[in-house]
Amino acid sequence: MNSNQEWDSKLSEDIETDEDLEIDILDIDIFNQLLAMDDDDDYDEDNPQEDEDLHKFSRDIVSQYFDQARTTFADMEKALKAKDLSKLSSLGHFLKGSSATIGVKKVMECCKHIQFLGKLQNINGKDSMDEEQALKLITQELQAGKKEYVNARDFLGFFYECSFAPAKEDSDANEDSKHDVSQATGQTDFLSEKSDAPPKASPGISTDSTPKPS
């Protein structure tokens, strides 16, 4: 068994394969392009000490993305409280691009909608609406985006066998300042909680270091 087969077997060990979940959370082609940038040619499956170096490059990129997304969502909540539609549109555009780079497509879709709504357009970038309606829809998209963030974070945390959740000290530092959207809706902070179901992975994620032809 080569290293790629070994890694795939670790992905599916003791879990139920759910290809639909994987496809729903990730754009697999984009994520595989990121994995292709990992320098794992010399990985030795018989040396457990090398596990930390497996997929290190892509893992670091993904970790930076989740930190960035968490900060951006917090900035969105502040802008929502201030009813700053221009800022919301700009933040939506920013996180949309970051999410697209990783292949986290559900978060990308929510951010694209926020970008349009911040311009008083509908989620397709057409037709106009009033500010009150736009803010109401942005609130819904922001909640949906944070839920999808947690789903993607837990799913990829399982793939990389690590946690991308915020450190405890970060949670403690933010304990006194509840998120504005959460206060308004009575919902919990999705950025620090775990999803209800355990993440599932499918062997559809490739660990082949050879880039796929575009």
From TrEMBL:
<dbReference type="InterPro" id="IPR008207">
    <property type="entry name" value="Sig_transdc_His_kin_Hpt_dom"/>
</dbReference>
<dbReference type="InterPro" id="IPR045871">
    <property type="entry name" value="AHP1-5/YPD1"/>
</dbReference>
<dbReference type="GO" id="GO:0005634">
    <property type="term" value="C:nucleus"/>
</dbReference>
<feature type="compositionally biased region" description="Polar residues">
    <location>
        <begin position="204"/>
        <end position="214"/>
    </location>
</feature>
<dbReference type="GO" id="GO:0005737">
    <property type="term" value="C:cytoplasm"/>
</dbReference>
<feature type="compositionally biased region" description="Basic and acidic residues">
    <location>
        <begin position="169"/>
        <end position="181"/>
    </location>
</feature>
<dbReference type="Pfam" id="PF01627">
    <property type="entry name" value="Hpt"/>
</dbReference>
<dbReference type="GO" id="GO:0000160">
    <property type="term" value="P:phosphorelay signal transduction system"/>
</dbReference>
<protein>
    <submittedName>
        <fullName>Histidine-phosphotransfer domain, HPT domain-containing protein</fullName>
    </submittedName>
</protein>
<feature type="domain" description="HPt">
    <location>
        <begin position="54"/>
        <end position="153"/>
    </location>
</feature>
<feature type="modified residue" description="Phosphohistidine">
    <location>
        <position position="93"/>
    </location>
</feature>
<dbReference type="GO" id="GO:0009927">
    <property type="term" value="F:histidine phosphotransfer kinase activity"/>
</dbReference>
<dbReference type="InterPro" id="IPR036641">
    <property type="entry name" value="HPT_dom_sf"/>
</dbReference>
<dbReference type="GO" id="GO:0043424">
    <property type="term" value="F:protein histidine kinase binding"/>
</dbReference>
<keyword id="KW-0597">Phosphoprotein</keyword>
<feature type="region of interest" description="Disordered">
    <location>
        <begin position="169"/>
        <end position="214"/>
    </location>
</feature>
